[in-house]
Amino acid sequence: MSNQVTVLVSNTPIPSNRIGSWVTRINTLIKNHDCFDYILSPSNTLPKNIFCKKRKFISYHKWIRKKVLFNWVAKDYLRTLSKLSEEHSAITVVVMDDPHLIEAIALKKAKFKGQLKIIFSFHGFQLKLRQEIVAAIDKVLFLSKAGRDKSIANYVEFSPKTEVVWNGVDSSLFYPLEDMKRTTMRNKLGFTKDHLILAWMANDRPLKGFHLFRKMVLELLSKYDYLKVITMGTQQKIDHPSVLNVGRLPHGEIPNYLQLTDIYAFTSLYEEGFGLSMIEALKCGNIVIASSLGAIPNVLSGLARCYFVNDPYSSDEWIARTASVINNFSGNRISISEADDIWNYRDWQVRFISAIIN
């Protein structure tokens, strides 16, 4: 039986072309560092991949739920970990932000032959796993101090160790353009130096607040004839000649638009674990207007050019705050070195590696 190994558990193929904050980070991590001996995911691209697929629940009925979880939903992962536990004396299992996989592995922990250390990389704001699951986890990685503190407060007893690893954005992709190049790129899209561009980017989930953004935009466009708008990520559109609806983009193309915009509205209506897109926009030189929910104030604490909407459910507050930013807009932008210091990927990588090996 060999010594300790580290295993990554993911419900998403790793490596993957899928757009997503943690997927992008992990893809880069495994490309640059040999952190994992095995990767359990629905992929067989790499030699260290072991193909495991998470299946959908057949039934959530309380009398058979656990049986379905163990024998169907997480079957591949449990079977593979069981085999690895027979071959290795100690296994560190890093589960990426999946409540069902962490539940299955935690509840079966005592059944594995080798010593199992379970690390849960949690990407939400409030951890709400059942007490018996939390008790079997050795360490939880949080994206913010606020999220960690709020999560611990939910439990009578919280036994896992914790690490706040925060998040990180690649500064080689997300950075402010030099003025002349930025002007040239804006001109190619039909924007002039006199235009002020407001950006929004998210998926189609209602809690991302597109309905608020649409209402805000239509009101602001009636007041400011020099205002232009770019929306990204959503299939929803704002039908107005001053709005460019880009739709979904590969992750590598997102900076091409954020580097051209001036103000970024982060209209999220739920408790974000971090709020990565607002940092991507900030690093590209945008002023950020964000809701005050979840970890957002914690993440933006101490950063310049950030403004909050204290009642994010109110379209009037979004309109008033954004109008204030527009009225006081100076045109000054941050430098590349200043942008690099804002939540860069390199620092996240160091924190994450340290958290899983210590």
How does this model look, in words?
The protein is elongated and about 70 Å long. The protein has helices spanning 21-32, 65-73, 75-87, 99-107, 131-136, 145-152, 179-188, 210-221, 255-258, 276-283, 296-300, 315-327, 336-340, 345-357, and strands at 5-9, 38-41, 49-51, 90-96, 115-121, 139-142, 161-164, 196-201, 227-232, 243-247, 263-266, 287-291, 306-309. It has two domains: 5-168 and 344-357, Rossmann fold (3-Layer(aba) Sandwich), CATH 3.40.50; 179-340, Rossmann fold (3-Layer(aba) Sandwich), CATH 3.40.50. The model has no long low-confidence stretch (mean pLDDT 95). Helices cover 35% and strands 18% of the residues. It starts with a strand and ends with a helix. By secondary structure, it is of the alpha/beta class. The strands form two sheets. A seven-stranded parallel sheet has the order 3-2-1-4-5-6-7, sandwiched between helices. It has 14 helices and 13 strands. Helix 8 (210-221) links the parallel strand 8 and strand 9 (227-232).
SSE pattern, N- to C-terminal: EHEEHHEHEHEHEHEHEEHEHEHEHHH
CATH architecture of the largest domain: 3-Layer(aba) Sandwich
The strand count comes to 13
Structural class of the secondary elements? Answer: alpha/beta
Compute the gyration radius: what is it? 22 Å
Strand line-up across the major sheet: 3-2-1-4-5-6-7
At the fold tier of CATH, the topology name of the largest domain is Rossmann fold
Report the portion of residues in β strands: 15-25%
Assembly state of the chains shown? single chain
Instruction: Determine the N-to-C terminus distance.
Output: 22 Å
Query: How many domains, as an integer?
Result: 2
Uncertain runs? none
Mean pLDDT: 95
Relative helix content = 25-40%
Sheet with most strands: 7 strands, parallel
By CATH's scheme, which homologous superfamily of the largest domain applies?
A: Glycogen Phosphorylase B
Silhouette? elongated
Number of helices: 14
Text of the CATH class of the largest domain:
Alpha Beta
